[in-house]
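[step 3/7] fold_predict: job queued, chain A
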Amino acid sequence: MRNKLKAYRFPIILLSSIIIGSIIGLAFGKEATVIKPLGDLFINLLFMIVVPLVFFTISSAIASMDSMKRLGKIMGSMLTIFIVTGIIASIFMLTASVIFHPGSGVDIPLMEPDNVEEMSFSEQIVNTFTVPDFVDLFSRENMLALIIFSVLIGVATGITGEKGRPFSKFLTSGSEVFMKIIQLVMYYAPIGLGAYFAALVGEFGADLIGDYAKAVIIYYPVSFLYFVIGFTLYAFIAGGKKGTVRFWKNILSPAATSLGTGSSIASLPVNLQAAKRIGVPKDIRETILPLGATIHMDGSCLSAMLKISFVFGVFNKDFTGIDTFLTAIGICLLSGIVMSGIPGGGFMGEMMIITLYGLPMEALPIISAIGVVVDPPATMVNVTGDTVSSMLVTRQLEGKDWMEKAKASTA
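[step 4/7] structure written:
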């Protein structure tokens, strides 16, 4: 019993710090923002680490693969699982939207958004996959370009053969070093997350009550239900009862970090640690989790469906019919998988909703505001969805006894 409690000790400390921070925010209101720098310090430390971490983990994982055939299997399985879980998440929120009708009876003044920057499709593609200068890879705003560069480095190192072995060892060593840095930074996590939540609740807590209350009331329970029911089911499919227990034993730290920071990228270091403890093989977790942090967003699929149904209600449009529902699911997949990897992809997803349904541009701030208030649980679902997806990929590639293999390899 003591050993079980010890395994949950750090997640319990994190959750306790979040609760304490929230209480401080409620008690002191906006005065609690005075301790926000303590939270900003924690988030900046994570962002400071994430660029070299992504580079070393992806490139070392691919460079150390026995064959490029293994990489192809991982990528194919990953994309299939990302699409399937995205469809399930979209249907989950669609069901709730049909039942509760978000946006019905809402009176929101329409305002023309300022500084709407239009970008052609070809420019979006170029800006998504490349950067104009090597130094731009060192910005977290260009994560997909960094991931592609890391994959190329890993592939080139692997096919170089014997001459590439020293560089492969360097990449592996770099990956291990940055994982240790994460462990050091996480000692500060309880203070950082507690302070951040105190500031968030103190500044925005009262503003959540208003025209968007119904949308928030729908999204938060639905996202947490999907988090609990959906991910328990996925974990069970991946590893049976043992996989479910191991998932929930290790997922609370990434969940708490993502809920507090609102960033999939900032949560990546903690998530990599969790996947390692679960037993996901190194090449799978260090390929899928960085990619998933950029192009796999079950929480974004949930919020996109809510935005669509909400704006239909605001403009008194009929949100019924198979065609309407299938189009909505397609938009959710594009928003949660394709556009999430594009800089400003969330904004472009919202623009796509307006364009495809023939809504006035004044609807943009309405949809954007929903994205702001549902962002914390959406990010939590995004991050933890990457972890359980890596388990599903491992189950598909390694067989049903993958957890025993992982235990044997670390013994």
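[step 5/7] annotate
The first helix runs from residue 2 to 7.
The two ends are 23 Å apart (CA to CA).
exit 0
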